[in-house]
Amino acid sequence: MFKARFRSLLALTLAFVATVLVSCGGSPTVAKPPTYTPAQIEQIQQYVSDLEKVQERLPELAKLIQDGNWVFVKNFIRGPLGELRSKLSYVERNLLPQDKTKARETSKELIESLILIDEAADGRDYNKAIRNFGVVQRELRSFLELTPQA
Q1: Residue 83: how many CB atoms within 10 A of its CB?
Q2: Mean pLDDT, to the nearest integer, of 53-81?
Q3: Counting beta carbons within 10 angstroms of the beta carbon of residue 130, is it exposed (0 to 12), middle (13 to 18) or buried (19 or more)?
Q4: Where would one find the signal peptide in this protein (predicted)?
Q5: Do 99 and 146 contact (CB within 8 A), yes or no?
Q6: Are 73 and 129 in contact (CB under 8 A)?
Q7: Does the domain spanning 36-146 belong to CATH 1.20.920.10?
Q8: Which residues contact 136 (CB under 8 A, 6 or more apart)?
Q9: Terminal-residue alpha carbon distance, the chain
Q10: Which of 115, 111, 109, 105 is nearest to 87 (CA)?
Q11: Mean of all residue pLDDT scores within the chain
Q12: What is the pTM of this model?
């Protein structure tokens, strides 16, 4: 009698466990990686276009540095490059999470190098200016590579 009761209880317990496992198991859901919407890409591309125009104008800054035209170096940084920080910031905020950290580091390095060029212009330090100009070029190119393509 004890064996029969034990078997019944065991069968009932196994049936309950099986039911719970089947109902909770379900099919695994695979989370889709985040992507850009067409509207987001369009907005980002407007700012990327401005950043590409800045990139096209960088040889002008290099020429000013080479010529030692320090007043115009400072004017160029404040003029055509004056809104660079805000454009970088806008794009950075709208990137996917996995790209934000790298974009933040890149834009920070770029802006710091522009500040150092400005300081070099104050001190008429050609070597410091041209060295940081190379960093600006490299970091802007790296930043643009992080942006989504249209």
Answers
A1: 12
A2: 95
A3: middle
A4: 1-31
A5: yes
A6: yes
A7: no
A8: 58, 61, 110, 113, 114, 117
A9: 76
A10: 111
A11: 87
A12: 0.74
CA distance 25 to 147: 39
- Determine the Cα–Cα distance for residues 50 and 44; give it in Å rounded to an integer: 10
Burial tier of 107 (Cβ tally within 10 Å: 0-12, 13-18, 19+): buried
Q: 124-137 pLDDT, tens per residue?
A: 999 999 999 999 99
pLDDT per position as a tens digit, 15-25: 666 676 666 66
Task: Report the C-alpha dihedral over residues 49, 145, 150, 30, rounded to 10 degrees.
Answer: -140
- Please give the structure tokens belonging to residue 139: 């970091």
- CA dist 23 and 45 (Å) reads 47
Distance of CA 72 to the CA centre of its chain: 31
Secondary structure (H, E, C), the chain: CHHHHHHHHHHHHHHHHHHHHHHHHCCCCCCCCCCCCHHHHHHHHHHHHHHHHHHHHHHHHHHHHHCCCHHHHHHHHHCCCCCHHHHHHHHHHCCCHHHHHHHHHHHHHHHHHHHHHHHHHHHCCHHHHHHHHHHHHHHHHHHHHCCCCC
Q: Residues 22, 52: contact at Cβ < 8 Å?
A: no
